[in-house]
Amino acid sequence: KPSLDQINPFLGLLVDDLLEFWEPGVWFSRTAKSTSRHLVRAALVPLICDVVGARQVVGLGAHSSKYFCSFCLLKSQDIENFDISTWPRRTAHDHLRNAERWRDASSAEERGKIFEDHGVRWSELLRLPYWDSIKYTVVDSMHNLYLGLIKTHCRNVWGIDFNIEGGDASAHPNKPPPLQPSSDDMKAGTHALYYKSLSALSKCSKAEAFASIHEVHESMQLPSWINPVPRGFGTTKHGKLSADQWHTACMTLLPVALVLLWGNETERKLRMLENFMDLATAVVLAGMWSISEAHIELFEMYLRKYLEGLKELYKEAKIVPNHHLALHLPDFMRLFGPVHSWRSFVFERFNYILQHMNTNLTFG
Q1: Can you give the three-state secondary structure of the chain, one letter per residue?
Q2: pLDDT tens digits for 288-321?
Q3: pLDDT per position as a tens digit, 172-185
Q4: Fewer CB within 10 A of the terminal residue: the chain, N end or C end?
Q5: 251: nearest Cα among 210, 293, 212, 223
Q6: pLDDT in tens, 273-294
Q7: How far apart (Å, rounded) are the C-alpha atoms in residues 25 and 16?
Q8: Integer angstrom CA distances of residue 58 from 119, 131, 322
Q9: CA distance 232 to 217
Q10: Rg (CA), the chain
Q11: Residue pLDDT, tens place only, 138-161
């Protein structure tokens, strides 16, 4: 991966070609469907990548910096503010002006001061006459929702794969992942699932609750086009889940298992279930293949409800940039339509293929 100093020379080569495709365009002597000449014009819209890559390409600071958001000027100390109407918005005009000031600065110290004040560096993409660094740098739903919100909720908020005692997640988990539950605990959880009441099932130890989740997993028949969750979900044995597996775990497996575990509760665990279902509903709405303004408004409603509930239920849980960035997703749904047409699944698959090609590890 190129450094901050190296990225612009790489981008410059691409931008040179894109400028030619934009004006005057490129003539092709023939195409796949025609033997006559055709003038082809092309533009780069939008930029689709994870947060780290996006910030580097467009010349913005990291998501851990003072101005952590690439779409508004909310400061990191105000990250728990979910009132969108109070967020100061970035504009393409101000971004370009500050980037040009950074480019034309006479010293490294002056550049550092400009970046500290505005969180902006020069990017070669700004040479494109149509380029808008704010509107065209999308929040990728795969990284933001699947590898972001639902993974964070399971691992960091609930501690679903951390070695802690079972409880109500009122304390923040921060310990190494556990081993597979013992066979006795698995049997106890399975017995509770099949033969005891819901209240008895909800009082199982964490290992027993895992056993119940795994039993639901074993009993569930999924369509062939759904990527299943590994049998050892929640343990160190099977390592990391892919984005698609996190989606399956939290949109199909956990809703069923948690309704069995917590659906008959009356206090905190019921509120935990309702909070998780708000998140699941928002993720389902965001991933629809066809959306309308009504769907987008529902997504906004359930996401805000989830985030407010998260702050109230889990006092020690940390609000992270992905939580904030998810609230910007509706802007891009309105600009570019359903997220399946501009998320990074296909590009990550190509990365996987390229990384697994046999090479001699040399250029040329």
Answers
A1: CCCHHHHHHHHHHHHHHHHHHHCCCEEECCCCCCCCCEEECCCCCCECCCHHHHHHHHCECCCCCCCCCCCECCCHHHCCCCCHHHCCECCHHHHHHHHHHHHHCCCHHHHHHHHHHHCECCCHHHHCCCCCCCCCECCCHHHHHHHHHHHHHHHHHCCCCCCCCCCCCCCCCCCCCCCCCCHHHHHHHHHHHHHCCHHHHHCCCHHHHHHHHHHHHHHCCCCCCCCCCCCCCCCHHHCCCCHHHHHHHHHHHHHHHHHHHHCCCCCHHHHHHHHHHHHHHHHHHHCCCCCCHHHHHHHHHHHHHHHHHHHHHCCCCCCCHHHHHHCCHHHHHHHHCCHHHCCCHHHHHHHHHHHCCCCCCCCC
A2: 999 999 999 999 999 999 999 999 999 888 999 9
A3: 555 444 455 566 76
A4: C
A5: 223
A6: 999 999 999 999 999 999 999 9
A7: 12
A8: 11, 10, 18
A9: 10
A10: 24
A11: 999 999 999 999 999 998 998 875
pLDDT, average across residues 20-31: 93
In Å, how far from its chain's centre is CA 320? 11
84-114: buried (b, 16+ CB within 10 Å) or exposed (e) per residue?
A: beebeebeeeebbebbebbeebeeeeebeeb
* pTM for this model (two decimals): 0.83
Query: CA-CA distance, 285 to 305, in Å (whole number)?
Result: 14
Angle at 63 between CA 344 and CA 356, to 5 degrees: 35
